Amino acid sequence: MTSDTRSPADPATPLGLLARAVERHQAGKLDEAEGLYRSVLDVLPTNSDALRLMGVLGLQRGQPAQALDWLDRALAQQPRYPEAWINRALALKALGRPDEAEASFRQAIAQDSTRPQAAALLADLLFAQDRLAEALALYETALRRRPGHPAYLANLGACLLKLGHPDRAQAPLAQALAAQPEHAGALMHLGLALMQTGQTEPALAKLAQTTRLRPDLPDAWWNLALARLNAGHLLEGWAAFAHRFGSSAQPEPARAFGAPAWDGQRDLSNKRVLVWREQGVGDEIIFASALPDLIAGAGSVIVECSTKLIPLFARSFPQVEFRPEDRSQDPRRTDIDTQLPMGDLFRFLRPNLASFNGGPPYLVPDPERIDRWRERLAALGPGSKVGIGWRSGMAGAQRILHFRNGIDDGAALFRLPEFMFVALQYGQSEAEIAQAERKHGVRLHRFDDLDLFDDLDELAAALAALDLMIGGPGTATDMLAGAVGTPSWQTYLADAHWDRLGSEGLPWSGSTRLFPWRWNESRKKAFDQIALALAEFRPGEGRAPIPKPTAPPRPLGATSLQALAELHHKAGRPEKALPLYRQALAADPDFVPARVNLAALCEAGGRFIEALDLLERAEVIAPAQPLIPFNRGNVLKALGRKRDAEEAWRQALRLDPGLADAAINLADLLIRGERPAEAETLLRDALIHAPGEIRLTNLLAKAIKEQDRPEEALAILDQALRASPDDAKLLTNRGGLLRILERPAEALADLDRALAHSPDWPDAHFNRGAVLREAGRLDEAVTAFDRALAWAPDDWEARWNRAIALLAQGRLKEGWADYALRWHESALMRAYPQPLWDGSAPLAGKTVFVWREQGVGDEISFASALPDLIARAGRVILECSPKLVPLMRRSFPAATVTDATPGAFDVHLPIGDLFRHFRAEIADFPKRQSYLKAPKKHAIAGPGLKVGIAWRSTKVTRERARHFFADPLELAPLLTVPGIRFVNLQARLMDGEIERVRDTLGVTIETLPDLDLFDDLDGTAALMAGLDLVIANGSATAILAGALGVPTGLFYVAHGHWDRLGTDAVPWLPRVTLWTRKMGEGWERALGEARRHLIARSTA
């Protein structure tokens, strides 16, 4: 045999192949490179370089998920690998996981702080998140490591510009251009920095140069348009404005119609023109000022606008047909001759300032609503009524510059007592308002019933009733005030907008007055100017008349009515949505969306029959729409028709196998109906059609858990968490599974992570409470359940589990109150015409029917309180499991015992309510040794201590199995105590269990072959009565023995149930001794206690 003497660079060696692969890769031959990388990995599967470069290939091909897999494999082999961490960060960024991307970038920086790339890329990531101060520091770090790098300089300048430092931005941007004169980003941002510092002509030159350099860059055109329009160069500005689509200001592309776009020149008489919305609501309001000119020249006009503007626009322009935006038919539309975006109204109809005609009011509020608002405002007291807003709802870093200090900038206004201020700031503003009121001693009035964001028709009327609106910069509320003729005073950051168009005001709004401030000044300056101007303000003086309706608005079509109804519906205003849905159906009885949404509204209001009628008719009209049978299934379930609901959801899935909501509802129904295997099959199929749907994965894990396969369920959640590591629902369900697997520390860690991401997620609080309860941390458990109920007050499971925790604490009155909720949504709760006894109504002379619930052990436990009821009632009829009837008749001769519902009684109650009514305190439990009476003892002849033994329940799931022994051999420490005669009390033995004990331990467990330990409880009681001791887990066996007064040792999981009621024993079973283990422990300690007890008894 000869040794291999080839050098590593030999192309035939793996490293030679790797070098060749890199060469092919660098040459752009990606397929060839991949084949060579795979050849290397066939020989060296752990080669970290080849693994990383496969990840790089994935990134280059736009396959970040595959790239991430390769990069994780590379890092598993070589954790200290900065290049791989950078590539991993880029893959995570592409997958939309910025937090993890940031962590990977930081890992790369920590491993090699000398290279600038990781710092610069992390800065880019943070810049995109508007974490500008952090980004700035990282760009500076990158430049210290690589001075003069043009991209780093350009990005540093852009960051400074966005931070509001256009003066400081200019130097790095100029340096970037000196190093790379054709760097379009640096050129564009330098133009903006020059514009914002008032250097208009140089700014225009730089921005125009950018468009020549990169005519394909929409942002370059947008910023040139902004600069030209700001300078008053309207024709040139509108020309650049035409390229706005795809820019950061208008990121969506222009819509693609079959009809040609209007060029501003073609004759529109007898033409049907569509004007379609763009940008924000404020922009729609602005551009609508030019609609009258278009209407005058066109045959007819259709306008697609934001739904919230339709009522106001329809009243203001009655000749126009207004509709909500609908892009679905754009290429195939035949109802129009030409079309244009709304912004082009100014482009074609406002070529100069004179064309704005002084900016008269043009929107028409509802006159009756104006009168109502005048009355409401007058009721506030004397003084001018001034609306005030202080920021936009769009709070990106660049826009924040326009309203840096919020309402505090306007402090000077609040020192003017003759004005009453009405807060018209939409969004989450309550905390700001409250703080301003405390800080400045001002009252900011607000009307909670006015939806400032969505109900713009109502807002327009409120604004028209005001004396003045103060705000800025250019929010939709400000624009609306000016459009209805209300004096609108706005703070205005000079040279940052296009809308002054080189004038001193807003040309389309003559009622608007601007109070400018510059980039190096505080907005407080503008508010101070407003405060000075208020001293000379006279309400109504010079105010243009509020426009009034000139004609009735065109009737809205079904589509518009439906859209308006849906807007109110989603905003939680069903009283406004309902009539609009009905109007939509009156306009078009076959309009399916209105039928479906009206049905949803009816369902939410409990009008299930009406909802079902609407959906059944909708299904006739549109039999192929899967959402209709889906919604029909929801209604049928609410009506209790579960089989029909199941078929409806199956129909929805036949129409759309990817309809995850239908699969989820159906699977949940199957799981609750104890059909988890069917649910599992359904969910696995659904995940084929919707592979990324986390809710399906969660429910699949639940279905598998319900089949006693928690480890497999855990593996499914673990796989899902690798893709979505911060998903609160996945973490919550994983925590629940870890509880079952008795891994409480890990469970709490997962649940705490879930709550860190979603503090209002009730299921996480619930699962946390369950883990804490089983860990014995009962105060914390109750707090966790309280938090769950704070977010979900109707969660009966949380209240039920809170009851268990309260009872375990010994807080009986509170616990029993919640314990009553065990019947929520349960078909087991019985409905009789006779009343349910509430524990207080007199029972003398009354017949009380007590009916059975839960399991046999529960019936035996609660029966301990029957003597109290018998003493108060005229007559008691007890229904119990048939196998308990002989025992209960003997034990409670004063009661009528049956296994069926009687024909006549006065009141009724479930047997579990006996403790609630008669055991409100521990002192209420009698100190009697027994309360059940066995028939004649079944004596076992011969010497020795006779000990009955059982080790599990006859109903064992994986979760219940924690309370039992799986095999009698686990009881070997007891079975090997000498001198004991063990007698079998285990019902439903498994094959060979008794024989295996005999063969392994040499111990005989005596059995009575003719005694049915499961069904013959009277015979079992006789056997127990003849024993010296019974040892069992928490099954009916131990409870029966204790109720008979037989000394009983009970293996017990501490805090696994409520039955200790805050004590160290079971209060109604004083002959029972508990041998406990904690969750997460084995039975060894408890078995040791039991063995010592048994030895002591056998030698006594």
CATH class of the largest domain: Mainly Alpha
For CATH, the homologous superfamily of the largest domain is named as Tetratricopeptide repeat domain
- What is the β-strand count? 20
Q: Fraction of residues in helices?
A: 40-55%
Envelope shape: globular
Strand content: 5-15%
- Average per-residue pLDDT, rounded, comes to 92
Radius of gyration: 39 Å
Largest pleated sheet: 6 strands, parallel
- Poorly predicted runs are 1-9
Number of domain units = 7
In what order do the strands lie side by side in the largest sheet?
7-6-5-8-9-10
N-to-C CA distance: 81 Å
Counting DSSP H or I runs of 4 or more residues, the number of helices is: 49
Name the descriptors.
single chain; disordered N terminus; 6-stranded parallel β-sheet; alpha/beta; 49 helices; 7 domains; Rossmann fold; Serine Threonine Protein Phosphatase 5, Tetratricopeptide repeat; globular; 20 strands; 1100 residues
Outline the fold blueprint:
Blueprint: H1 14-26, H2 30-43, H3 48-60, H4 64-77, H5 82-94, H6 98-111, H7 117-128, H8 132-145, H9 150-162, H10 166-179, H11 184-196, H12 200-213, H13 218-230, H14 234-241, E1 272-276, H15 281-287, H16 291-297, E2 300-305, H17 310-316, E3 321-324, E4 338-341, H18 344-349, H19 367-378, E5 384-388, H20 397-400, E6 419-423, H21 430-440, E7 444-445, H22 456-465, E8 468-471, H23 476-483, E9 488-493, E10 512-517, H24 524-534, H25 558-570, H26 574-587, H27 592-604, H28 608-621, H29 627-638, H30 642-655, H31 660-672, H32 676-689, H33 694-706, H34 710-723, H35 728-740, H36 744-757, H37 762-774, H38 778-791, H39 796-809, H40 812-819, E11 847-851, H41 856-862, H42 866-872, E12 875-879, H43 885-891, E13 896-898, E14 907-910, H44 913-918, E15 945-949, H45 972-975, E16 980-984, H46 993-1001, E17 1005-1006, H47 1017-1025, E18 1029-1033, H48 1036-1043, E19 1048-1053, E20 1072-1077, H49 1084-1099
Parallel strand pairs: 1-2, 1-4, 2-3, 5-6, 5-8, 6-7, 8-9, 9-10, 11-12, 11-14, 12-13, 15-16, 15-18, 16-17, 18-19, 19-20
